[in-house]
Amino acid sequence: MNALRRSAVALAAAAVVGAAAVPAVAADPSPSLPQGLYGSTDPTYDGVWRQSLALLAQDTTGVDPAPAAVEWLTGQQCDDGSFAPYRASTARDCDAKTPVDTNSTAAAVQALTALGGHDAAVRSALAWLRSVQNEDGGWGYSPGGASDANSTSVVIGALAAAGTDPVKAVKGGRTPYDALLSFALPCARGGAFAFQPDQDEKLTANTDATAAGVLGALGKGLVTGPGEAADGAAACAGADGDPRRAAANGAAYLAGAVAEDGYLKSALAGAEDQPDHGNTADAVVALAAQGGAERAAKPLAWLEKNAAGWAKRSGPAAWAQLILAAHAAGADPADFGGTDLVAALNATGPAPRATASDQRKDEDKEKKEDDSPFGTWWYVGVFAVVGVGIGFLLSNRKRQP
């Protein structure tokens, strides 16, 4: 999922990578940035993406987001329904030079659908996504760009989240699943997903695209709980055009990739392999969604021990990724290796209207009152009697000569 966020830079790198490269984030947004936006770093390439993830993560954990945060996101939408990564000025509508993209639009659809009350905005965004669907059934990052596994997957997630069956999104006689399966490698090459074919039309396994592809093949969005527990060890088998089999194959590839160390690796130019926290979080979501929480136990445990520092440096999208990973694997995001991910996310932007903790406190207070041997009405009655008594005394006092 960080891969989907990073697709702005991904086009140059031919891989969509993510939040790991974002600079450190202050507790409160910079005064120079728009009010309501999460994070204090330049939102040029990831504003809508990180805002959408933040709102999704808050909604998933029972947080009622700040109205300003929701208004910031809805205010970024173009009249045609699309979203760009960031529009510094929304006074004028988008034009041909506005860099709208499928990933930002699909993420916003998922966030606004989860929050509810934004049906018109969601319908408009979905209509735009359908209008830029490629003839192979998939989507590229930019309208008209070649389809890739990450973009196709995040749009499938948007369609599914909004209640539209992706199978019915047909273009050129092909569905989004047809496009997605075209990026799936055979079991002889591990069963992973490629981002897209290279110049020689060859597919190369990509863990980032595989994590996204597993969710897409399952018809899942960015938010998902543990799937049905799978029996036995993850293994690759022929897909035969079956999206769910392709998802299982992709999950088997990810399980093998994290088996030794518990995390996925990334290699920067001129540097040794190092842990990729964001991609590992995505893998947790994919593994849990496809084969149940137990499949994701090892990388989840690694994240619990090692990811807090990364998220603190990287900002709201990283905190949100960890929350969604915890949710997918059935862990507690409020106590994730000793870190309250929800509080950390909330601190990167406008204070929410209410948190799940606030609601629990209110419920506990009401419960205590209900459990009282006297109850609320007993106290009302006592005060009524006291009031009558005081009135009686005052009345008698006035009558005395």
- Ends: how far apart? 85 Å
Overall pLDDT score? 86
C-alpha-based Rg, rounded = 25 Å
Largest sheet: 2 strands, antiparallel
Strand arrangement within the widest β-sheet reads 1-2
Beta-strand proportion: under 5%
Helix content: 40-55%
Structural class comes to mainly alpha
Element order: H for helix, E for strand = HHHHHHHHHHEEHHHHHHH
What key attributes describe this structure?
single chain; 401 residues; mainly alpha; 17 helices; 50% helix; 1% strand; globular; disordered C terminus; transmembrane; transmembrane helix; Terpenoid_cyclase/PrenylTrfase; membrane; Prenyltransferase alpha-alpha toroid domain-containing protein
